[in-house]
Amino acid sequence: MPDQTTSTSATVRYRIVPSDPHAHLFEVHCTVDAPAIDGQRFRLPAWIPGSYLIREFARHFVAVRAEGPDGAVAIVKVAKDTWRAAPCAGPLTVVATVYAHDLSVRTAFLDATRAYFNGTAVFLCPDGLQHAACELEIAPPPGDAWRDWRVATTLPRDGAEAFGYGRYRAADYDELVDHPVEIAAFSAISFEAGGVVHDVVVSGRHRGDLPRLARDLALICQCQIELFGAPAGARPPFERYLFQIAVVGDGYGGLEHRSSTSLLCRRSELPQPGVARVTDCYRNLLGLASHEYFHSWHVTHQARRLRALRSCAEAHATTAGPSRASPPITTTWPWFAAA
Questions:
Q1: How far apart are CA 154 and CA 163, in angstroms?
Q2: Among 33, 167, 193, 218, which residue's Cβ finds the most Cβ atoms within 10 Å?
Q3: Residue 214 DSSP SS3
Q4: Per-residue pLDDT for 336 more than 60?
Q5: Residues 128, 319: contact at Cβ < 8 Å?
Q6: What is the 3-state secondary structure (H, E, C) of 80-143?
Q7: Preceding peptide of 91 cis, ω within 30°
Q8: Pairing between strand 41-43 and 61-68?
């Protein structure tokens, strides 16, 4: 069997379904074709890029089981964020039930109105396969109550229709978890900046003036694109961008990703039809969106380079594990948390 600590030819397959919106439960599958001969380990990150606190996402895993070609496979929790399956022939599938009721941009949320998740909160990483290609199937919740829900993410589609359920792909685990997913009956509008299409999806009850929001965001994005590149023909460092906006009665927050951002705002912060001036509330939303978009150059790509440096250090130390799912390394340098 090939050494899985350096394997890049394998593909890890994931499947996620909002299995019970009323109980706030996702069901998440992770399948490995050739599990480690001494028992495959699966880890979950403890933090998410852009929000540098230990989140302990594993505490939301309420049940974990494993299946192989011959039926159930024993699996035990060996650390607060790590599970180990008994040795078995492949393929090996681990099925996790994940509780999701954190109305923020950092973890996962599911109720009868919308579903949202960051990969770090729901996707286990098989030891030794952090650099393997990933396939993800996003399935709809059971029943007809949510038949008008759509999917918004910048994960590359691999058979799925635009804004649709189906199969997506990622080059590795780091890419998989750097594209949050919004599933809801959202409103959507698009604009172009720097020759790149930017989508805006808004989930939740609202009366916002989305054409105006798109026009104003286009000006902000174009200004930043020109700031970081030549004004003539400048392009941003991505092929597509997505603003995911969840509107609530009272809430505020944002988190940047490599080609998208998740924003949480109050309904009053959307531009309102018939109101020409820029209100203080609307300025808050535009400022938040601008701040997170700025990270596309200022933080996110620097963080990727730091992760690459850390991967080299881990290789020399003959250890394995993704930068966010490996044992903690303490430091007094706050900026290094971006790695």
A1: 10
A2: 193
A3: helix
A4: no
A5: no
A6: CCEEEECCCCCCEEEEEEEECECCCCCCEEECCCEEEECHHHHCCEECCCCCCEEEEEECCCCC
A7: yes
A8: unpaired
**Tokens 């039809």 identify what position?**
273
Task: Of 24-33, 182-191, 285-294, 310-319, give the lowest mean pLDDT range.
Answer: 310-319
Per-residue CA distances from 149 to 17, 58, 144, 198 (Å):
13, 27, 10, 20
Residues 201, 243 contacting (CB under 8 angstroms): yes
Q: In the structure, what pLDDT confidence band is assigned to residue 312 with cuts at 50, 70 and 90?
A: very low
Percent of the chain with pLDDT over 90: 77
Taking a C-beta distance cutoff of 8 angstroms, is the pair 326, 43 a contact?
A: yes
CB atoms within 10 A of CB 196: 17
Helix (H, G, I), strand (E, B) or coil at 232: coil
Amino acid identity for residue 217 in this structure: L
Nearby residues of 254 by Cβ (< 8 Å), 6 or more positions away: 105, 261, 262, 263, 264, 288, 289, 291, 292
Tell me phi and psi for residue 324, to 5 degrees.
Answer: -105, -5
Cα angle for residues 313, 317, 318 (degrees, 5° grid): 115
> What is the rounded CA–CA span in Å between residue 304 and residue 299?
9
What's the one-letter identity of residue 69?
Answer: P
Arithmetic mean of pLDDT, 82-99: 97
- Half-sphere exposure at residue 205, Cβ-oriented, CA atoms within 13 angstroms: 3
Cα(169)–Cα(14) distance, rounded to whole angstroms?
10
How far apart are the C-alpha atoms of 80 and 225, rounded to whole Å?
42
> Side chain identity at 275, as an amino acid letter?
V
